[in-house]
Amino acid sequence: MILVTGGAGFIGSHTVRALHEAGEECVLLQRRTPALPPRLADVPAAMARGDIADLESLRAVGSRYAITGIVHLAITPPWAADDEDAIGAAGRALDGFLNIVRVAKEWGVRRVVVASTIGVYGGVPVEGALGEDLPLPMRHFHAIPTLKKITELLAGQLAAESGIEIVAARISGTWGPGGHLPDPFFPASSLAHAAAHRTTPDLSGLAHQPYAEDSLDLCYVKDTGRALALLQLTPELRHATYNVGSGRATSNAEVIAAIAATEPGFHAALPSRDTTTPRRWLDTTRLREDTGFTPKYDTAAAAADYLAWLRAGNER
């Protein structure tokens, strides 16, 4: 069985479905609730309640199920809660990853796929394709990319010393059913939600003002989940780090046009920048060559599928 931490969440639930469709049984680890989300009601997956920062709760999962692989998507936020300081928060976040490797060693797991992020490329002075071998700035930009860069470095050391294959998946901007609303980094989900409900887009939750020309590697979540499943199941991988994305840059204007093609009455006007912004995307050559992955959804197909899901009465 494959243990998927955060398996009832946004990307996790689509990864579980992709693993199920590939013939694998899954155990979903969730910290808060042991109930399957409605979007997985037709998937015969097991639920386990536990916290990656609590080693004994992880060990309890291994005592109930024969775990053969792990897709680690859960994250302990690396910022301070009300009752702890920043050092304690960072320590708990790193403990979560270390505990996953501990139990993987105890259970004899061959491969652990660990979620990283496109955010690790922040500050890389490159326009165009972002390859996995690019040197990453060792500066702090945001708590999550900082944690992910540290995790990737630790993964290399621990893989070498433990014999466990630890694969880092640098996941692109992701949208689709079950997604974050609002997503603080890009407006696609908020735009789709507004179109489905015929309301004015509320973009106030974004961290920065979005512009029409702004672009990123935007991947539909069903493709993201399938790519992660392939990284777990492909018999032989030649690398320890893989970009997971669409392999193309998609602008906000292109998202709006794709949504409007499905919902002709939809209109959203984003301001234009005075200067040209560089288009950057994830180079997914490694992923394609080693796993055979190619995206099934372009922007138009993704918008149509997402809007249909929202119109069916689903919340996000």
Provide a compact summary of the structure.
It is an enzyme of class 5 (isomerase). This protein is of the alpha/beta class and 316 residues long. 37% of the residues lie in helices and 16% in strands.
Layout of helices and strands:
Layout: E1 2-5, H1 10-21, E2 26-30, E3 46-49, H2 55-64, E4 69-72, H3 86-107, E5 111-117, E6 128-130, H4 143-162, E7 165-171, E8 173-175, H5 188-197, E9 215-216, E10 218-220, H6 221-233, E11 241-244, E12 250-251, H7 252-262, E13 280-282, H8 285-291, H9 299-311
Parallel strand pairs: 1-2, 1-4, 2-3, 4-5, 5-7, 6-13, 7-11, 8-10
Antiparallel strand pairs: 9-12
Helix pairs in contact: 1-6, 2-3, 3-4, 5-7, 5-9, 7-9
Number of domains: 2
Can you count the beta strands?
13
Largest sheet: 7 strands, parallel
The CATH topology of the largest domain is Rossmann fold
Major sheet strand order: 3-2-1-4-5-7-11
Q: Which geometry do the CA atoms define?
A: globular
The average pLDDT value, as a whole number, equals 93
Helix content: 25-40%
How much of the sequence is in beta strands? 15-25%
Enzyme class: isomerase
GO molecular function, one term: UDP-glucose 4-epimerase activity
Keywords: Isomerase
Protein name: UDP-glucose 4-epimerase
